[in-house]
Amino acid sequence: MNPLEIHNAAYSRRHFFRKSGTGLGMAALASLLGQRGISAAESMAGINSMLPQIAPKAKRAIYISLVGAPSQIDLFDYKPELKSRFKEDLNGYLKAQGQRLTGMTSGQATFPLAPSIFKFNQHGQSGTWVSELLPWTAKMTDDICVIRSMHTDAINHEPANQLVYTGSMQSGKASLGSWLSYGLGSMNEELPSFVVLHATHTSPFANVQAISSRLWGSGYLPGKYAGVALRSLGDPVLFLKDTAGISRETRRNMLDGMNELNARSFEAIGDPEIENRMQQYEMAFRMQASVPELTDLTGEPEAVYRLYGDDSKNRGTFANSAIMARRLIERGVRFVQIFHRGWDQHGDLPRDLASQCKDVDQGCYGLIQDLKQRGMLDDTLVICGGEFGRTVYSQGKLSETDYGRDHHPRCFSIWMAGAGIKGGQVYGETDEMSYNIVKDPVHIRDLHATLLHAFGFEHERLSFKFQGLDQRLTGVEPAKVVKEIFA
Question: pTM (2 decimals)?
Answer without folding.
Answer: 0.85
